[in-house]
Write a structure and sequence with these properties.
239 residues, alpha+beta, eleven-stranded mixed sheet, four-stranded mixed sheet, 21% helix, globular
Length: 239
């Protein structure tokens, strides 16, 4: 791996803005299809410092975690959020040049640690949950004990500033940034294999930008937290 490694005091700051976002719930098989469609790509843990040279994750790990997460929801149970957060907080990239490996202080036992962070525009994955406002608007990426856990969010910057020159670039330009094509592939897969969710609250239809895998339409109505808000998922024929 041709990695870019920095001491903590020398690590460049990642400067980006106007993040485009995809927020969705898909099952394990859909996640496997998604990652395969987006290949080649590499995945790195992005939750904070971890053991040095052990930050890379593999598609099989997130696919298995996604399968367990969705199986719990389908059984009307709440998934173990701590495990899901650890498995789904990732940095995704098509090359090694877009990420920085930062050496940080050793742990209490003296073991070396590293932090992986974006260096150039990359795709960031994190757990996603939402809630609903008093006027029945879906509010994505809201956390808390009453929020509805809903898969993951992927985000990618539209604007990137070079930390050395301060020049501003279009993060979506695939001629400049290899991960622009990665995020484009992700959006293409989403358009084909997921649908925007339409919720029902009594007789009221509530549209949203969050998405649901087509395979997952058969069980997502079992989600144990939706009833807290009086929500149901419109069947595909109704949406």
């Amino acid at each position: 791996m041709s990695e870019r490694r920095f001491a903590a005091s020398e690590a460049p700051k990642f400067l980006a803005a106007k993040f485009q976002k995809l927020q969705f719930l898909i099952d394990g098989e859909e996640m496997a299809s998604f990652l395969s469609f987006c290949a080649p790509l590499r995945l790195f843990a992005n939750m904070g410092p971890g053991p040095k040279n052990q930050s890379e994750r593999y598609s099989e790990e997130i696919v298995a975690a996604c399968g367990r997460y969705c199986a719990a929801l389908a059984d009307r149970a709440l998934p173990e959020e701590r495990h899901w957060r650890a498995a789904s907080t990732l940095l995704l990239t098509r090359d090694d040049e877009s990420v920085a490996f930062v050496d940080v202080f050793p742990d209490s036992a003296g073991n070396e640690r590293e932090l992986v962070q974006p260096l150039l525009p990359s795709v960031q994955m994190q757990p996603h949950s939402f809630t609903i406002s008093h006027d029945d608007k879906i509010l994505p990426l809201v956390f808390g004990p009453a929020a509805v856990s809903w898969g993951v969010q992927l985000s990618y910057p539209q604007i990137f500033q070079d930390p050395s020159t301060r020049a501003t670039h279009n993060g979506l330009d695939p001629k400049q940034f290899v991960n622009a094509s990665l995020f484009s592939a992700m959006r293409n897969w989403m358009r084909e294999h997921t649908v925007p969710v339409v919720f029902l609250k009594g007789e009221k239809r509530i549209t949203s930008t969050i998405r649901l895998g087509k395979r997952s339409l058969s069980w997502a109505h079992n989600h144990p937290t939706l009833s807290h808000f009086g929500l149901q998922i419109a069947r595909s024929g109704e949406a």
